[in-house]
Specification:
Order of helices and strands: HEEHHHEEEEH
Structural class: alpha+beta
Shape: globular
Helix content: 25-40%
Number of strands: 6
Number of helices: 5
Amino acid sequence: MPPSSLIQQLKWTLRRLCQHTFPHVPNPAGCNKRAAVALIIRVRPTFPNQSSFDTKSCGPEAGTKEQRLETFFTQEWVQQGDPEVLFIKRAARDGDRWTSHIAFPGGKRDYEDETDSATSVRETREEVNVDLSADHSLLVGNLSERIVTTWLGKTP
């Protein structure tokens, strides 16, 4: 059963994502299009100047993803902080089917992207200038992959 406080629920959910990676879903035959988005969550300190992110205790040299996550959530400013999710609003353009949509940062996979994760990292950097490969970021895991179909049930 998940805990009751929002921060504890977030910790519980991220820990489960670390421990239970969803399987890769291959493309249907004849379809080579893929896309990926990033769900970016940050914890904002409740009071100004309260945070003191320590890359030594939470950065890559601090251990596994699970260890880094655990260390991050033991910090007092995190336990009292407010989680925030980053959304973007797509540009308004005539003829664009995604015009003005609210979305997570992300987009179409390019040939140089080795994984869907690499796509979401690249697209996030391009769209909102957030570097998810930086030491203060932690890629926890992936959500379940989906094959997207048209309203007629056809794959693109």
